[in-house]
Amino acid sequence: MSRVLRGKPWSKDGSDHEDEKEGDSECGQRLGFALCQKLARRSSRDREGRSRTRDFGRVHSHRMQAKEVIRKLLTVWKGSIARCPQSNGKMRDYRLRESGEQRLRISPPARLRILIYGINYSPELTGVGKYTGEMAAWLAARGHEIRVITAPPYYPAWKVREDYRGKWYRTELPKVPGAPTVYRTPLYVPREPSGARRMLHLFSFMVGSIPVMMKQHSWKPDLIWTVEPTFFGAPLALLLARTTQAASWLHVQDFEVDAAFDLGLLPSNGRVQSFALRLERVFTDAFSRVSSISGKMVERSLAKGVSPIQSRLFPNWVDVDVIRPQAAGSQNSFRRELGLEGKIILLYSGNMGAKQGLELLVPLAAAFEDDPRVHFLFCGEGSFRSMFEGMVAHRPNVTLIDIQPMERLNDLLNAADIHLLPQRPGAADLVMPSKLTGMLSSGRPVVAIAEPGTQVAHVVGGSDALDIDPCGLVVQAHDPTELQKAARCLIDSPTLRSKFGAAARRYAVRHLGREQVLARFEQELLSLIREPEPVIQVN
């Protein structure tokens, strides 16, 4: 027969006591509270530590009795004391481990030690690196101590930047007090990231980061935050979390394993795919939290076996004060520089990779080649760019430009009359295009290629169930005629463009603002570290 202790005193004979009068030194004090007293009071002079543990139980007056309580805890419950780290010299964080992996903690201070582990980071201007860098800077500005283990910047050009070459390991100390400390580790970057080379590229980052990750053991982070891609780093992050008793968080920007098979980057061998998915589930289940960037991707995580307790929604964001609609009639620098003033511009801006489906836009550009009002502008870099350039090189109504610095992003997005968001079939709920946040915040309509029922279709096409007004038009990838009709509908109707653009801006302000998204995320971090007192089973 097992007995559940829910905060009541316990005695040798196993009977429950009523609340005892103050001053009573019987062994009927709560075991967890007496143990907290033992850990928080290393000496009789530690008055401050004793006052901080008052909320967790009455402080025992006899040191020997505290030792006896600890001995009983170890022998009767067969638990183990994991560790008692000092939390920034202010409060001790006691964690009790037993077979059920439950923890008992004293509330930590608001300032957390957070280790961010991911292959992409600032100064990359697009994709995962942009968001991870902004998140780290925001958390550091909030007073948290941040360390980042990442690779040299190489994306989306798939080439390591010149100023980061020639040194395998590199440490970037904060230039201003409180900024993140960044550790760069070596990795293999293929010129043409085919399936096998891409896997080797991701695996090489994990191998190169091993020594730097192990050095963080003495730092004792409160949280290890890992971003997918790459999932190869998950075992290493979990190992460090287990050995330091840190909480662990996996953030899924792309379902890397699914995308590798569904997009043909890896051969769909039944046994190999089954083994990879099984391995993915084992490691995913071990994280304290698993988040993703859209509701549909969270649903996919749940379908993979992630528990609702673990699962969180952590969407990408946009600084709605920086990316905003420009006043009507204002001159746009890109239109002026490119000689496109007065044109109706259809813009694609972002990574030019295999999963973006840029080849779907080539027939669209061809369909409007004889329309002098219309011009197509493509901006970005990536593994597919050189091939795409060859596809549109002879089109007079197409212009390609390189990726632009952040200070010009708002001008670029406002150069568009219509944003284009292509996606290859099968990728819609495996990846959520990060570029969509800026499109919406700029207050311009979107023509998206997406399957019905996907998150992109809900956001762009509108959803009564989710109370989302349409921000543009959605078509399916297998129907180029419908894509041309959707584009022509918006080209011919300034009123409809204005209506969809206003709805896009409203959605961005309500749901994607950087401050509100990151503030909610910070509260989730604090609630994870401050877990409630567990119910302890005694056999």
Automatic annotation (TrEMBL):
Source taxonomy: Bacteria, Pseudomonadati, Acidobacteriota, Terriglobia, Terriglobales
Segments of this protein annotated with the region Disordered: 1-27
Keyword Transferase: yes
UniProt superkingdom: Bacteria
Keywords, in A-Z order: Transferase
Domain Glycosyltransferase subfamily 4-like N-terminal: 126-317
InterPro entries: Glyco_trans_1 (IPR001296), Glyco_trans_4-like_N (IPR028098), Glycosyltransferase_grp1 (IPR050194)
SUPFAM superfamilies: UDP-Glycosyltransferase/glycogen phosphorylase (SSF53756)
GO molecular function, one term: hexosyltransferase activity
Species whose genome carries this gene: Granulicella sibirica
Biased composition (Basic and acidic residues): 10-20
Full protein name: Colanic acid biosysnthesis glycosyl transferase WcaI
